[in-house]
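=== Structure Prediction Worksheet ===
Name of assembly: unnamed complex
Input type: mixed (protein and possibly other molecules)
Chain count: four
Listed entries:
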Amino acid sequence: MSIRKVADLAGVAPITVSRVINTPDKVKTDTRERVQRAIDRLNYVPNLAASTLSSKRSRIVAILVPTLSNPMFSDVIQGLADVLRAEDYHLIIGDTRYSQATESTLAMEMLGRLPEAMVLTGPIGDERVRRLLARAGITVVQIWDLQPSGTIDSAVGFNNYAAAHAMARHLVEAGYKRIGFMAMVGDERAKERRCALAAYLAERGMAPTFEALPPRFDPMYDPSSDFVRLIDQHPETDAVFCASDMLAHLAVFACQRRGWAVPGRLALAGFGDLPLSAKTVPTLTTIRVNQYEIGRRAGEIIINRARSGRRRPDIQDLGFEIVRREST
Amino acid sequence: MSIRKVADLAGVAPITVSRVINTPDKVKTDTRERVQRAIDRLNYVPNLAASTLSSKRSRIVAILVPTLSNPMFSDVIQGLADVLRAEDYHLIIGDTRYSQATESTLAMEMLGRLPEAMVLTGPIGDERVRRLLARAGITVVQIWDLQPSGTIDSAVGFNNYAAAHAMARHLVEAGYKRIGFMAMVGDERAKERRCALAAYLAERGMAPTFEALPPRFDPMYDPSSDFVRLIDQHPETDAVFCASDMLAHLAVFACQRRGWAVPGRLALAGFGDLPLSAKTVPTLTTIRVNQYEIGRRAGEIIINRARSGRRRPDIQDLGFEIVRREST
DNA sequence: GGCGAAAATGGTAGCGGTACCATTTGGGGA
DNA sequence: TCCCCAAATGGTACCGCTACCATTTTCGCC
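=== Predicted Assembly ===
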């Protein structure tokens, strides 16, 4: 089933069928309708591999995220998908499982599809990949935490360090003095938040009571029991900054089981503002970053680039917001 | 940057480079190494559009889900992605936003990429799409709820109706008499669960106190306040079956705000067994369906098909499990 | 050393579109 | 009516790779 068959049936040249599909207003109305009928009759579906090869326009965008299971990233993807679908782009998704090596491999493989843009989560560690991407001449949008070093082209996100710093400040100003830190398995970006917390506390002459970064990819890791153990080991702790909302919620539930009042005995704060976090009892203090909007903006950068052809790096800091709720 | 340049640099024919990439053991070791060096030197990345066109093997799998924001579906995708990555497939993802029309459009567009398989959520309503898919000769795997009618080829999932029926039975046998039903916005599949509940209750001479199916795509829909209103309108209700775990959790939190004991004043059950659901206070009674495994099995069907070339429909019922916890 | 079969490599054509330029058609103004 | 320019349509080559078959090389064995 090729464009030629359609052309024969419609009594036109193949190129005219191509025009009906791609630039319909360059074809006279009755010709267009005739061709359209032939397309419908034959159930013709254009071969996009051939189109890509010939036109060098793939209408593909590739995105790499650490995981699909975290709502933060699926919301980003949703935002990106919403924008791109309207422009007939297709989305190739890869999850790196928080592994640098997998990220490199996937990025190179995906380049073979000639994507018109590549969306990556955070900075690129691999020098070779960075070179390849830059040389490929495609739009590269790095999302999530903005980091001047390691940005190839454009970026949309927020300042991860500043966000954690602000949360540390919020906790201290709310009167908490013995603050702990805890992260979810695999969350590399959490390290920066830990540093920000420690740095702020140091400014005020304090230090974290504990800084729990679980080993990567430990399948036995149980945040709840780990949390309880940490508090038992550091009973003076009066607040814990959790590197994700889900972790914070689990901590709240663990407290409730133990009969520890939140925030009375222990204050808890998270990161990411899940829809859930405004509804739990108590509601959760957190850092909101509007993941959906990050995805949308990334999509807009890609589309504007494709339309204008201009190649001007665009760094958008969408900021963050400390949402103070009942848990602190 | 083409295979030709690599071939020239390595002093071989283009086809030999192709072999090094696709069937390396058909090339003598020293030739292979020479070619590999040329590939590395030139940073050559094979053009998969050309490869697809020529070989008619795209190494692409397309998947359509109702939404990416629901962890149920992102877990399915994660399972699928894990299996397919090992075989160098790429995943094109589309979300239909629970719209039949979008599903049809996306499916047809994606066919243009010549995917080797297409994974769809649930039955296909559109006759034309069904025909096109069947004619395309690709593997089609329908996931989630198994429905004999509307299955094109293979399927992996569970019996949605039976699951809801079993939950109804659980609630009745636990002694609850006035049972309500509530679904999340957009969840079409919830209708079947409502029917199953109503049918079971009818068998026992009962009827649901309410059956709340919110209007589709109402952005103002607030499950929590809606829930409270429903209970106020039907105060005799002693249990609510929620069509998703998240909805059930929101209901629990609303109860806690109102001072209604769960399950003392009101029992709550969900669907999907989120990781969260075993940790909340109270823990949530729910129906577990192992979404990740559904994705994995779908991937295995696809790969086996690709390897063996056989085309035998494969229907796998992975079942479900009523997980009784504290909330009922 | 010569033979034959298997392994390794190469030449050619074509996958299904679109870019580029050429040609034909249409229509308004002199 | 003719001319000219714009709109509409068509012919040809080529995008980068691989299927298919042909050819060359290798190697075990008599």
